[in-house]
Amino acid sequence: MELDLGLVRTFVEVADTEHFGRAAGRLHLAQSAVSRRIQRLESQLGVSLLVRTSRSVVMTDAGQTFLTDARALLAAAEAARRRLTAHQRLEVAFVPGVSPSPVIAVLRADGHDLDIGMRRVQWYEQGDVLRTGGADVLLGRLPICGEGLRTEPLWTESRMVLLPTNHRLADRSTVQLADLAEEPMVRHDGPVAVSWDAEHNIDPRPDGRPVPRGPIVRTLEEKLEYVASGVALTILPSSASTLFERDDLVVVPVADAPPATVALAWPDDRQRLPAREVFLAAARTLRR
């Protein structure tokens, strides 16, 4: 008989929480999926492990006996995975403003000592760095374009408009997209320019109007110079607006702009690299 460790982990979570709903929340599963997993495990073992009451879950005698072994199985599997990941190098790509450091802190707190390389990439490199093998996993911003990639949102950020200090809106506490209707916006270079302009310039605007076109840029630094010169404006995620400090620029929240999304991405190559799986699990704990 081969035991599915995913089913075993589900059983331990239900036993620890004494509740299918709470276990489902901790496992990021639907409650019905947790119930099905327990049923499959009981079918594999040929015994009843849990009795569900109207208010809680009670373990059977067989469940109590199996719980000790289940914890030992999971501990042994985790130890084996740690030994494997300690000898693997994981290449992590990230875009400006999305730091891998919090994920690495989670890994260290959990006792993982991964060999991690870090590579900063621009928006137009997000998909390519994964497809070409330059990185095993990416912490980036949607849209992450390209075939053969998996993406998973982690959190969202509010958006700010970057203005020169002498701009008519620079003293405002917030602005609306309508306030920016006539303002040219810098455009993004590279093969993903169309999707990035649509997402990050919010083009077209909610009323259907196209955004006036500004110059094309390839880096954040180029955006800063065009804005400071009064040539065009740019809309930034809130974290990106903390990457610089200049006396000639100011950021103002855009109250009605849709949020920007930070996401994980990795090749959908069906190759479950142990080090990448550990990194993904750590990153998911930061989801908000």
UniProtKB/TrEMBL annotation:
Matches recorded under InterPro entries: LysR_HTH_N (IPR000847), LysR_subst-bd (IPR005119), WH-like_DNA-bd_sf (IPR036388), WH_DNA-bd_sf (IPR036390)
SUPFAM superfamilies on file: Periplasmic binding protein-like II, Winged helix' DNA-binding domain
Q: Which UniProt keywords apply?
A: DNA-binding, Transcription, Transcription regulation
MF-aspect GO terms: DNA binding; DNA-binding transcription factor activity
Q: What is a single cellular component term in the Gene Ontology annotation?
A: protein-DNA complex
Q: Which PROSITE patterns match?
A: HTH_LYSR
Highest taxon of source: Bacteria
Q: Which residues form the HTH lysR-type domain?
A: 3-60
One Pfam family hit: LysR_substrate
The family this protein is said to belong to: Belongs to the LysR transcriptional regulatory family.
Q: What is this protein called?
A: Transcriptional regulator, LysR family
